[in-house]
Structure formats: structure tokens, C-alpha cells
Amino acid sequence: MRTPATDAPRPVPAADDGTPVLQVTGLTKHFPVRGRRGAVVHAVDGVDLTLHRGEVLALVGESGSGKSTIARLLAQLMPRTAGTLELHGTDATVRRRRGFRAYVRRVQMIFQDPFGSLNPVHTVRYTLSRSVRIHQGRGLRGAELDAALRTLLDRVRLSPTERYIDKFPHELSGGQRQRVAIARALAADPEVLLADEPISMLDVSIRLGILNLLQDLRDRLDIAILYITHDIASARYFADRTAVMYAGRVVETGDSESVTQDPKHPYTQLLIRSAPDPDDLEARARGARGEAPSLVDPPAGCRFNPRCPFATDLCRTETPELIDVADGRGVACWGYSDRADRPRLGDVLDAYGRRADEGGTP
Ligand SMILES: Nc1ncnc2c1ncn2[C@@H]1O[C@H](COP(=O)(O)OP(=O)(O)OP(=O)(O)O)[C@@H](O)[C@H]1O
């Protein structure tokens, strides 16, 4: 059961009938390229995602794969090129400012940089009071407001609250600032948190504490969380389901345990089997098959084909959709299709190793 941050009225909670809280289908974003008429960056292309209450979905991928763009599209901070966005099964596209305010109350975003996202000239009390008043009622003041602030700080484990409430951001650690940013998001009593690399700028020693806090919010408040990260190991620890992105497309989805323990897509295999040394991954991938593709003129077919040791003509010409492989798992790789001309997959690291031994790309 959700417990509201205060007794103030909140948007009607929808019955949990299994309908996703938030769902996007065919999500696409193309950015125009300045100075090149007609050219676009294919940042996100045809992505389907569903977020359920009380569930963490990790969106994993290397830099430039489109993760942040997806977060901004889900937050409706910019228009999409194509695709639908539904909240509880109903079109949630905002067209006016008022609609946007109502949407933001339900879908809140947490940013990577807690240093940049809190205004340095305001105390924690000011920052949180402002958010509480916006979302829970402009008239809230005095003891009632204090109680709401206390509840929020308790929720993010900044207690005793007196120690933090009159502090300025520069008087707090990175982890404490991120907790304040999370408290500010919680003031809206949201159903969805979009967390864009929420721990990547924090000290390694405090990252786990923030993930545990988010996990606790998922459990206690039944919030749906989109957790964006380039660190697939943290996705395994923290997320119920994982979607792996490559060059603007989702290449693999499934429960986090299966995706990380038994990766199916050659890209996910490379990502996981090279961990924990990302340089190893980059070196192997570069040594074997070059850099991540241009998103202005992306490769035809599977976008991973130029780096994939198993790619065939089919992979170079036709785009694979997500293929059901087992237990709700999907893999966008022709290797799992029943086509006669499908590629025969082998061990991805062996293949790269062989290539390197043979002196580069064949
Ligand atoms: N406003 C914009 N105008 C033009 N191109 C953009 C814009 N925003 C993002 N892009 C491009 O879209 C692609 C995806 O970027 P995005 O930031 O979503 O990736 P990401 O996976 O979040 O990467 P990172 O982890 O580095 O933030 C990149 O090629 C990026 O340069």
C-alpha cells in the first residue's frame, strides 16, 4: 500500500490490474543535424518499454546508446518523433502546461548530478518546501509543512532531520545531496521515478546506499523505477528486469538475473563477459570490429552487425525485431530466428580472441 507523504489529497491511485503504469511503444527520437539538411541523429528507434508498479526496470547500454534520450522522452521534456506513451493504459501525451504539471506529479525524474540539480543558494528546507507546496497544496505551512518535510527526509533516511534541514547543498556530501533530490521528487508522491545514472557521479562507497534506498522506496511506496545505467552489474543487483540498448535500439530484455547470467545477444555477451574490466570490452570490440556506429547514418540491418563476429548478409540487410526466446525474454538477433540464412552464434569472446590473434578484422 502506498502511504502519501502527507494527508493532502493526491491524484487518484489507479487500481493495480496488471496494466503497466507507464508504457511506450515504437518510441523514436531523431535529432536534426545542424548544418546538414535532412540529416538526423537516430538517437532512439522503435523502442517498446513497460514499467509496472513496484518494479525496477534497468536500461543498460554504453554511452550514446540513447538511454538519457529515453528518460527525457518518458518525462516528456521534449517531443518524440514517433511512438505512443500511455499512463495506466491511456494516452498521456501532454499538450499544455497544465497537463504537463499533472503528468510530472506522477512521473518524476532524478538526475545524475546532485551537485547541479540542487540550487546552491537554497537550503534543504527551501528546496523541499517549494516542491511540497507545488505538489501538495500552496497553502501548506507551519506545523503541517514541517511534518511533510520531516516525512520526506525520513523517507530518504536523512535523520535526525534537524541535522539536514537547514543545510545548503555545499554543506552536504554527494550522497546526501542525491537523497535530497530524491526527497524532492517524492514530494510529488509519484508513481514513477526516472533515475538517470543516479549513482554514477557518487563515491563508490556510497552508491550501494542510494540503490538500497531506491529499492526500499520501490517496496514501501510501490513505485515503478526506470534505472538508467551503463553498469550492467548494478542492474543485476538492483533491477527486476533489464533492457539492454545498443545504438538507439533495445537488443535484449528479460529478468535481470537471466539477462546477466545467461546473456543471449552477442552485444550483451560482450558487455557481461568482459566485465568487470570495461577497457577490456572496448579494446576487444575495437580490435575486432571498430567503434560504435554513427547514429546519423546507422548501419542497415542489425546495428551491431559491424562489431558482431557472427554477422551474415541477413544481419547486414534486415533489422531483427525482439524474438521471444524463453520466459518473457526477448532478443533482437537473427541468430535466434528460425530462418535458414540465420547466423550461427558461437562464443563471442572466443571469436574476438581469435580475431585478435589473427591480427585484426577479417
Ligand atoms: N539535443 C540533441 N541534439 C542532437 N543530438 C543529440 C541530442 N541529445 C542527444 N543526442 C544524440 O543522441 C544520441 C543518444 O544520446 P543519449 O544522451 O541519449 O545517450 P546515452 O546512452 O544516455 O549516453 P550517455 O550515457 O553518454 O549519457 C547521441 O548520439 C547523442 O549525441
UniProtKB/TrEMBL annotation:
Ranges that cross the membrane: none
Alphabetically ordered keywords of this record: ATP-binding, Nucleotide-binding, Transport
Start and end residues of each ABC transporter domain: 22-272
SMART domains tied to this protein: AAA
Keyword Transferase part of the UniProt annotation: no
Keyword Nucleotide-binding tagged: yes
Gene Ontology terms, MF aspect: ATP binding
CDD domains found in the cross-reference section: ABC_NikE_OppD_transporters (cd03257)
Domain of life: Bacteria
Segments of this protein annotated with the region Disordered: 1-20
Pfam families membership: ABC_tran (PF00005), oligo_HPY (PF08352)
Name of the protein in its database record: ABC transporter ATP-binding protein
Source taxonomy: Bacteria, Bacillati, Actinomycetota, Actinomycetes, Micrococcales
